[in-house]
Specification:
Layout: E1 5-6, E2 9-10, E3 18-20, E4 23-25, E5 28-36, H1 40-47, E6 54-57, H2 64-73, E7 77-84, H3 103-116, E8 120-127, H4 135-147, E9 151-154, H5 163-169, E10 174-176, E11 179-180, H6 187-204, E12 206-211, H7 215-224, H8 226-230, E13 234-235, H9 238-270
Parallel strand pairs: 5-6, 5-12, 5-13, 6-7, 7-8, 8-9, 9-10, 11-12
Antiparallel strand pairs: 1-2, 3-4
Helix pairs in contact: 3-4, 6-7
Length: 273
């Protein structure tokens, strides 16, 4: 089945652009593949997908370091997929971050995980439905991120997550997941979610998508990613998206300053002598 065509219905999505004076930016998609490390062949397959995807690697898994090196060799971005405590009390394995840890223990565990993946430009949470809703542990995460000049991606595994808000308070560059690609591991569901992500990007200007190295996801994306170019949607890495956002914010501030200066000059010219 050709991606973008469902039962003969052709999806057409218009190109959205944000006017910025002489500058324009097309809709953007950040696509993150979680859970790299346990399976070598699946990890290798998703790393070979075209475009600037971001890969979240589970620390101390059998193939974590090898896949991180391979991704870097392919010019792909790596982040740490930090295991965090969950409401179901599922085991986290090595590198697990729990709310009962002291600040020193917590930061030691997180730093050790980051040391094992020197290619990491940022981090996101693996599970974390318990930890990400707790303020103090997430502040410790952001303190480590600041020390290491990393960004944070809130995977939003719970609606009660505080991670993104705390990252903003701590002035850590942050993204928030909008769409899960393969919560159901079927080709139809992956296609449905991918098209939904496209619609979100068109409507809102950007979308952050998380998928996994399942064979069905890899097979769909191999055919589906070229659709983004056809629709004028930029596929960008997480760090590139954050840099674009910083540039846009700087440009907006400049435009506001220019407008204020122009208004002040007009007032001076209209003032009686």
């Amino acid at each position: 089945m050709k991606p973008g065509i469902c039962a003969g219905l052709v999806l057409w999505v218009g190109i959205w652009a944000l006017p910025l004076g002489a500058e324009e930016i097309s809709p953007r998609m950040v696509l993150v593949i979680d859970d790299l490390g346990p399976n070598l062949s699946q990890g290798q397959a998703v790393i070979e997908l075209p475009g600037p995807l971001t890969y979240a690697v589970l620390p101390f898994t059998p193939h974590a370091e090898r896949l991180a090196v391979l991704a870097a060799e392919h010019g792909k971005e790596i982040i740490l997929h930090a295991p965090m405590a969950n409401m179901a009390n599922l085991p986290l394995g090595p590198g697990g971050l729990y709310p009962h840890l002291s600040e020193q223990e917590f930061k030691q565990v997180l730093n050790r995980s980051l040391d094992s993946l020197p290619q990491a430009r940022g981090l996101n949470n693996h599970m974390g439905s318990l930890l990400t809703r707790q303020e103090q542990p997430m502040r410790w995460v952001m303190e480590v991120a600041r020390e290491r000049n990393l960004f944070y991606l809130d995977s939003r595994t719970t609606a009660e997550t505080q991670a993104a808000n705390i990252a903003k308070e701590e002035h850590i560059p942050v993204l928030e997941r909008k769409v899960f690609l393969d919560h159901e591991v079927t080709a139809d569901y992956v296609e449905q979610q991918f098209l939904h992500a496209i619609a979100v990007a068109q409507a809102e200007g950007s979308v952050v998508v998380i998928g996994h190295p399942y064979p069905v996801t890899q097979a769909y994306l191999e055919q589906g990613l070229p659709l983004l170019d056809e629709l004028g949607i930029q596929l960008v890495s997480a760090s590139a998206f954050l840099m674009q956002e910083a540039d846009l914010e700087q440009l907006h501030r400049y435009q506001q300053d220019e407008a204020q200066a122009a208004d002040s000059l007009s007032v001076l010219r209209l003032s009686p002598e």
